[in-house]
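Researcher: Good morning. I'm working through a list of sequences from a screen, and I'd like to move beyond sequence-only analysis. For each chain I'm collecting a predicted structure so we can compare shapes side by side. This is the next one on the list. No need for commentary yet; just the structure.
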Amino acid sequence: MLQRLRLALALMLLAAAALACNASNLVASEPTPSPQVDTTPVPSATSPPATIAIVTPEVTPSAPVVHTLIPGEPPPAARFMTDRSSVALAAEHRSIADDFNNGVFERPFTSQTMDYKGYLDLNRGEIAASGLWVYVTLSLEGQPPAAEPASYGVEIDLDMDGRGDWLIVGAAPATTTWTTDGVRAYQDTNNDVGAQVPVRSDPPAGIGNGYESLVFDQGIGPDPDAAWIRLPPSNPNQVQIALKAGLIGGDNEFLWWGWTFAYPQPAWHDYQDHFTVAQAGSPLSESAQYPIKDLALIDSTCRWGFDFNPVENEPGVCPVPSTPTPAPTKTKTPTATQLFIIP
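Model: Good morning. Structure tokens for this chain:
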């Protein structure tokens, strides 16, 4: 009897071991899960997005933004530059002032069909400062639209090395009241705007991420009053942008230039580095790259100095007049509480 019990126990142990072995083999033979990858298509240089890139703010307020300081009326222009208009050539679906290789764009036209959009055609930019504010006025050939995609901006180069440091952009305003709606301020913190050679067009390979830091988003940011936009009461074909001098560190000498866009892409600055000329196309009818292709519905001015006269060795500046321009009246040195006070 004892021998039979021992034999039964041995058989049970052998069966249990076999089951364990089979279970181990089953687990080992299960396929290893594949890594999850994001297969969302990435826009290429030849396929720009159909709409403006949406940037989600880092912090969403639980209550409406409360403003404590609103811009006033801008003083007379302290500095200005003009920009070639394309209105006279609109019926011919062309312009004569585009300089892709040097980042000066005259492209207020649609892609391929070259339909003219006067509300994106810059003809003048002005800048002035008063109290805490810097004001930029952009003059256009048409009134900013209520239904069409349009944005207006100013780019600022604080150290005048040809690489923009700040980009302030606002969607087309609807009224003459100052608003932060649709206004965003971007900063390039890693100094890669301009790619290898500032201003000049570089091959797209190896470019950086442009204006990668969203500092102000429609009142959300360290200062809810940092940047504003409106239509001037006196001229419906203008747009005005106001920014606090403190936003750009209270710097009182810098290069600045104006922009219009249908679909601004801060991460694509400089545009002449993001596209090749073949991809961008050209509005110059004599060019082999005509018509405009991927880089359409955009206009920019050349660059000019605020609070100083450029001497033409600053990257991208407008042609310096042959007749010396009187030196501008300097602003007082900004303090922590009072910036850009005009004597």
